[in-house]
Structures are given as C-alpha cells and as structure tokens.
Design a protein that fits this description.
The chain is mainly alpha-helical and 154 residues long. The chain has one domain. α5 packs across α7. The longest helix has 20 residues.
Length: 154
C-alpha cells in the first residue's frame, strides 16, 4: 500500500508525517503482534531483511540509519518514495544532532560527515533544516549550539 506522508494511515496503521524511523518500526511491530501475539522480533527482522540486533538498535534509537538502510526498510514496509526520503532526512538530522552534542564536536560539515558516516550533502541539508526549524544557532564560526538537545533524542 502506497501512501503520502500525513495523508492516510501508512502500513503501520498510523499517520507517518511526524514519525521517525524508530517510531515507525516500533508501531509496525506492535501492529503485527496485535494480529499475531506469537510474532517475534526475529521474524520482523527477517521480513525486513536486517539482523535482529540491528533492528533492536534501530528501534531503540541507539543507531542512526544511513540512507541505504532507510531505503531498504522503507521499501520492505511498503512506503512511498516521498515517505522514504522524509525518513532519510529525519535520520540524517538526528545523526547530526547527536554529533553536535558530542564532547569532541567540531563545528565543521566535513567533520560531521566523517563522524556520522553521512554524505556531505545530507549533512548540509540536515544543518539547513535545523537552522530553519530554529533548533540550531550558529553564533559564529566556532560557536554552534542546539536549542533543544532533547529533541535530537529518540
């Protein structure tokens, strides 16, 4: 079933507009378990084509999924291309936020790309979204500050 973000319920039975990847995965597993209480996390991971340990880290928000992973998961969940792209942007933004809160943070796009494993373009798009949403303030070349670091958490 193909859907548009926020318009109709998605494959997980929820509106997808504000959902992150870990929320979508958690909701999808819950929906499948509601239909079949014996449905396991390992079966869910197998249906998505990922290792169960990777799925646990993604669902717990401990791992930020890269674009290829988001693409594969989105296709397996039956998401539309626009939904997959939005999830990818959300994950990139979350990865950049996490890197900014690190002790060894350096205010540099290339450093962020190296640390997050994201392409430089994805880092720059994430930074722009953070600036537009007023979650990030760049007071100078060396002074970047997240306005609400808790929003970067899952």
């Amino acid at each position: 079933m193909r859907t548009t973000f926020g318009a109709r319920p998605g494959p997980a039975g929820h509106k997808l507009g504000a959902m992150s990847l870990h929320q979508l995965l958690t909701a999808t597993l819950a929906r499948r378990r509601a239909v079949n209480p014996a449905y396991s996390l390992r079966a869910f991971a197998q249906s998505l084509g990922v290792h169960h340990a990777t799925l646990v880290r993604l669902m717990g928000g401990r791992t930020v999924a890269k674009a290829g992973c988001v693409q594969r998961l989105g296709r397996r969940l039956g998401l539309a291309d626009a939904e997959i792209q939005q999830l990818g942007l959300s994950e990139a933004r979350r990865g950049v936020c996490r890197a900014i809160t690190r002790r060894d943070f350096r205010p540099d796009s290339r450093w962020l790309a190296a640390v997050t494993g994201l392409p430089l373009d994805a880092v720059n798009v994430a930074l722009q979204r953070l600036l537009v949403d007023r979650m990030l303030v760049m007071r100078g070349r060396r002074d970047w500050q997240l306005q609400n670091p808790l929003e970067a958490q899952p």
